[in-house]
Amino acid sequence: MEEKTDKENPIDTELVESLSLRKGYVRRPRLSWYYAPSFLLLWLALFYAIVIPLYYRLPDRLTISEESHRPGEFVAERAQQYLYTYDRIGPKVTGSYANEVTTVEFLVNETEKIRAEMRSDLYDLELDVQSPTGGYVFNDMVNMYQGIHNVIVKLSSKSSQSESYLLLNSHFDSKPGSPGSGDDGTMVVVMMEVLRQMSISEIPFEHPIVFLFNGAEENPLQASHGFITQHKWAEKCKAFINLEVGGSGGRDLLFQSGPNNPWLMKYYRQHAKHPFATTMAEEIFQSGVLPSDSDFRIFRDYGNIAGLDIAQIENGYVYHTAFDTYENVPGRSIQNSGNNVLALVRAYSNASELYNTESDDSHAVFFDFLGLFFVYYTETTGIVVNCVIGVLSLVLVGCSVWRMCHQSEEASLPQISIWFLSILGLHVVGFLLCICLPLLMAVLFDAGDRSLTYFTSNWLVFGLYVCPAIIGLVLPLTLYYTLLPNEKLSQAYQLQLSLHAHLVVQALLALILTAMGLRSQYLCLISMIFYGGALLINLVSTLHDRGYYWVPIVMFLQVLPFSYFCYLFYMFLVIFIPVLGRNGYSTNPDLIVGLLCGVCVFFALGFAAQLINMFRWPKLILLGLGVMTFIFCMIAVSDVGFPYRAKTNVMRANCLHTRRIFYEHDGSVSRSDSGYYFNYQDRRAFAPLEDSALDLTGLEPVANRCDDYVMCGIPCFYYSWCKWRQWDGWLPRESEVILPGELTLDFLGYTVLESGTVARYEFELAGPPHMNLFIQPVGSAKVDDWSFVRKMLDEPEEFQPPYQIFHSYGTDNTSLKFFIDMEKPDGIFDTPTLELAAVGHWVSFEYERDAEAKDFVAAFPDFVHVMEWPSIFKRYIF
């Protein structure tokens, strides 16, 4: 039979196209590849147009001259005046005159000025300077304090009979060498201005407010423990707000709440002027990833009260350095914090819930959305919502697959289901690559001694970690679509299946995280709601079946979740990148940044990135991202990638100029030397100093002596120093370190107790305001008891020798008398039984450094901030 031509059999092409659209198998061409850069740049533009402005948005500073026109509002200018005076005091190390006397006098004097201005007809103001002594177990050490100081103010309404107090806390001490104007001077002056505003308010409040200015937080967390366990007002405190600073300036992040008591979050949602919070920050902080802690822990664990932990988080580069000064604290940041704290204090001091704060055993899920509004719901509600939205998401995917089958004549439901499962499996592979490729980059840079290249040039993370994450997320399905083309299902449908796969992964991830008890699953919930909404609109409007017409709806509804996820993970990068400069030598910091970038890409671009396959030659687009990664790698290994800059992005080094004396069992000295003990603060250790004028000849690892002496024979300061001591360094010095004082450990003798196998060794320790004891049993001996807190001995599974005792004092320098009971099965105590080291630290700059030490420290390059002081290490065997 002769074949008929088109001319002989005319067809209504318009009708065919209409039917084809309805049947879903029209082969619409992909968009040209050169549109892809514009597509990718669109998301980058959204980041800079939406995320960055909202993230850095701060209120205008209120001046003293404006106060009469805006009564009852926080006045940042007055707080800055307080801060200027505080800053000029200088470093405020616990035990120093500046901290224990000058700063205490400053706080007392300012409080008295407020008393003079107060509405005495409405309020009572009580002032108390506490000097507590005590101790507790903090992480891996016994943390003891003696005669430290708290300045405590109680403000109450004359008309109120409430016995439930609200506690507001900040600390006025600082790290050695740092004025502490950010950490935590900013919050000290915020509290002072809040105290003033509350004392002149025309409207009385219901519950008394206790303002705790604590003088030993950096020690760590001693003064808050002294207050909450010993002060007369402590037992009446029913809720608290802890105010911290993790840098200098920026917005104040609510990063811990509770425990339980979701009403605290309800009030925060209703009253915070500038909400900034996330459950994810709480879970990360409480996991111990960050090398920090706060007084929140003390109030929660020892006071058994619930509260909020709030901190400014910007510019962590100056945190605990000499550059944490008044000049680096923006007035608008003080205004932001003041607005929030004043509003919250007014709300909580009138909260009826403060009368009955019994825990309801429910956590809260909370987050701010781009700083525009605050979302809060209970954990139980979150579980229900996650399950409902997860099931609805799966139902919508099922409806879409059924619709594709109904619209396509060439593909059956089982076939489409199998294709979808294949795409789902490949998307899971893409998810793993999205996480693993940035981690691989982190491993490679660390192997080449190039970690922290982004420390100053933060924009490098885009090419080093974000681009590889995008490549990993999209690559498996790109290869699938190009190498195994499906002629039975339109490209538009296949592309929808890849987005559906991401929705299913989000639903499954939400269920897994919910089962694990992690409240950060709300991220999955946001993803599911916005894509599920887009899918529902497309199904109802039939755009689902009209080629790529469904894409604009998806993209439009992805703008908000994209903005939120970028906002959230940008915040974490702002926090973590400076922190990684003081996270120690033992871990690869790039792994954390790579992981954050990978997770960010998964959530922010999980749907949008798959649209790369909408363009022709998607492999070429991914190749372009690969080329960009290569270019950024070349930049990172150049001088641009050098991590440190003088004054703004400094390298940190802890250097103790140390004298060591090792006494044997017979009292003879087996070793006496001097040198510099280095506690490395970041992954690069001292490698960046190799080409400097600093003479490091003879530098050796501390680990070389760990088998010979207790605590490796070095004067590690806190538990964190001692925990990672094997990574530290020791540089011998020929001349003896000249110490500014004496450390004495007097052995008062031992007495064999009735059992015959236990002997009590008694000692007396005297020296500088910061001292350590390191206790190591010898041979078969073990510590049976001691005069310190017993917890470490009662939990041998968690605490093992050598034991660390940290002791500090304020103005009370009374010597420390203590005993250690040693048990030996044979009952013979005239042979070596106990190895004991006494360590003294002259931390404050009120103590003179010797000339050689000064010259050595001065030789460090200008991009290094050195925290240094003289110390002595005396080892004894009894």
Describe this structure in words.
- With 878 residues, the chain is α+β, with helices and mostly antiparallel strands.
- The chain folds into three domains: 33-53 and 380-641, no CATH class; 64-355, Zn peptidases (Aminopeptidase), CATH 3.40.630.10; 651-877, no CATH class.
- Helix 12 (413-447) packs antiparallel against helix 17.
- 50% of the residues are buried.
- Mean pLDDT is 93; it is low at 1-26.
Largest sheet: 10 strands, mixed
Shape: globular
Fraction in beta strands:
15-25%
Low-confidence stretches: 1-26
Category from helices, strands and their pairing: alpha+beta
Termini, distance in Å?
113 Å
* CATH fold call of the largest domain: Aminopeptidase
Radius of gyration: 32 Å
Protein name: FXNA-like protease
InterPro entries: ERMP1-like_C, ERMP1_1-A_TM, Fxna-like_M28_dom, M28_fam, Peptidase_M28
Domain Endoplasmic reticulum metallopeptidase 1-like C-terminal: 648-876
Domain Endoplasmic reticulum metallopeptidase 1/1-A TM: 422-632
